[in-house]
Specification:
Elements: H1 6-13, E1 24-30, E2 35-37, E3 41-50, E4 56-61, E5 68-70, E6 86-88, E7 93-101, E8 109-110, E9 115-117, E10 124-126, E11 135-139, H2 155-159, E12 163-168, E13 174-176, H3 186-194, H4 196-212, E14 262-264, E15 275-277, H5 287-299, H6 313-317, E16 321-322, E17 325-326, E18 352-353, H7 392-398, E19 404-408, E20 427-437, H8 460-463, E21 470-476, E22 479-484, H9 487-491, E23 494-499
Parallel strand pairs: 2-11
Antiparallel strand pairs: 1-3, 3-7, 4-6, 4-9, 5-7, 8-11, 9-10, 12-13, 14-15, 16-17, 18-23, 19-20, 19-23, 20-21, 21-22
Length: 502
């Protein structure tokens, strides 16, 4: 994702501009839809930043066709959405949500959004580079009513607020609002029932793919459109709301020593040298907030599926934490069915624990211990020892798309609840199995889209993708992305697996 400085746009459009001065940065935060059917409405979100030392008022969209309008609905105060028109102090930013109405955009659009001062008499204008501009085509067809045509249809979800608009949790940001499936496509609302678990899994994987493509940073937020407050933008912050504090990723580059958003620049493989310091580094979600968000975004509020589930990693995994009952030292194979305090049965857990043969334990309150099924799929045995005997081939045979793999400790680093081998049983990370392999086929993940890894035991020979490697999606390091499933870090520290869709 790149941003355009005003000087470049002035050369292209012969607009008046400040000499040798970049004015407005227009950077895509959430890309809009590529294709909409006639009568549908879409949206996109761009961050607008005042890159000058002047206060600007009466800013807004200009020179855009009918059908491209700023969203002036009840957007949240927390996400810092632009009003219409809007003002920006020096260095300030806001999020411009743009609505795309196909009733007026009958031929689509391939430009903008163009932001100018002033909106009524535009002179200082800017828009993104071509690759990040609005690119929308309109198909003159009716909305398809079959489930297979709608598993990747998120148009209605993208028009809704991501946060509740009122509840706020310290620096972690506004509490999430789980979107609803579209009432304009009645069949879509019924697809979780009529399409069954196969459709649900396809939709969750499509939702993961959509958000991977947004290239958000790694931040401790609940929602993708919430930015870390200025007073928390410090490396290694611990109060929540902070983002990836990495400052040593590219020695010798102009970004070395900076707290940067290391996001893919869209050219070549996703190696460390292919990442850039992007103006939107303060947006994104952490691992368990991402998994909870993806499921809610894909399937809405479905009490039968237990969606949305908790955003805290250990709670998602099922470890119960309350006064007098801390289960940070409890793993799936260490449960004691006769003792309710030693059963992983957090009311906010995500789905059911998975057994070693791929079946699930259907009775969380009285676990079967997967007797006859090889025990639970975990790298930790009944004594709490990390066996490190889980292989990629083993999990590839038994996992289902959308399964959530919970990782204990910090890649083998000891902490407050050590196991006999010095590792920790506290769940600290979660990844999603997407059921796809590296390759160039239509159901593969292209090797160029596999992100680099910074796990404690990683080196380039481990994470470099090869055709046939199995892929997971998770949020750590530079943000939510596709990564190669490796034994190191992921499987050697596998706490357990949960299946939401069964």
């Amino acid at each position: 994702m790149k941003k355009l400085i005003l000087g470049s746009l002035c050369a292209a459009y012969s607009l008046h501009c400040f000499a040798a001065q970049s004015d407005f940065l227009v950077t895509p935060l959430i890309a809009g839809q590529v294709t909409l059917l006639a009568t549908q409405t879409g949206s996109a979100v761009y961050q607008i930043t005042n890159n000058t030392h002047q206060n600007f008022t009466n800013l807004g969209l200009a020179q855009m066709p009918a059908g491209v309008t700023p969203d002036v609905g009840p957007v949240s105060q927390f996400a810092q959405y632009c009003t219409n028109p809007f003002s920006l102090a020096p260095g300030a930013s806001c999020l411009l949500k743009v609505d795309l109405n196909t009733n007026q955009l009958t031929q689509g659009i391939s430009k903008g959004p163009i932001v100018c001062y002033s909106q009524s008499n535009p002179i200082y204008c800017s828009q993104p580079y071509s690759m990040d501009q609005l690119h929308l085509s309109v198909q003159q067809n009716a909305i398809p009513q079959d489930c297979n045509s709608n598993y990747a249809n998120f148009n209605y979800e993208l028009l809704q607020n991501f946060d509740s608009g009122s509840a706020f949790d310290s620096g972690w940001g506004p509490v999430r609002n789980v979107p609803q499936l579209s009432p304009y496509n009645p069949n879509l609302t019924n697809c979780p029932t009529t399409g069954g678990v196969a459709w649900e899994r396809a939709r969750v994987i499509a939702a993961a793919d959509f958000w991977v493509s947004q290239k958000l940073n790694y931040c401790h937020h609940y929602n993708p459109d919430y930015a870390t407050p200025l007073n928390q933008r410090n490396a290694g912050g611990t109060s929540g709301g902070y983002c990836n504090p990495a400052v040593d990723l590219m020695p010798g580059s102009v970004y070395y020593g900076q707290e940067a958003r290391w996001n893919y620049n869209g050219q070549g493989y996703q190696t460390a040298n292919g990442w850039v310091n992007n103006n939107q580094m303060w947006y994104g979600m952490d691992c368990s907030n991402t998994t909870s968000f993806i499921y809610g975004f894909a399937l809405g509020t479905n009490p039968t599926l237990g969606i949305p589930f908790d955003s805290k990693t250990s709670n998602q995994a099922g470890q119960y934490n309350k006064t007098g009952q801390n289960q940070d030292n409890l793993t799936p194979n260490q449960q004691v069915p006769a003792d309710p305090t030693q059963v992983l049965n957090n009311p906010s857990e995500a789905g059911l624990l998975v057994c070693a043969d791929g079946t699930t334990d259907p009775t969380p309150s009285s676990p079967s211990m997967c007797t006859g099924h090889g025990g639970y799929l975990s790298g930790i045995d009944s004594t709490g020892k990390f066996t490190k005997n889980i292989t990629v081939a083993q999990v590839a045979q038994v996992l289902q798309p959308g399964d959530l793999l919970y990782i204990a400790g910090g890649g083998g680093a000891p902490d407050s609840q050590p196991n006999p081998d010095g590792s920790s049983s506290i769940v600290t990370h979660v990844i999603m199995w997407i059921g796809k392999q590296v390759g160039t086929g239509p159901n593969n993940i292209n090797p160029s889209l596999i992100a680099p890894d910074d796990s404690p035991c990683a080196d380039p020979s481990i994470w470099q993708p090869q055709t046939g490697d199995w892929v997971i999606a998770d949020s750590h390091y530079q943000g939510y992305d596709y990564r190669k499933l490796t034994t190191c870090f992921y499987l050697n520290d596998l706490w357990g697996v949960r299946r939401v869709l069964n």
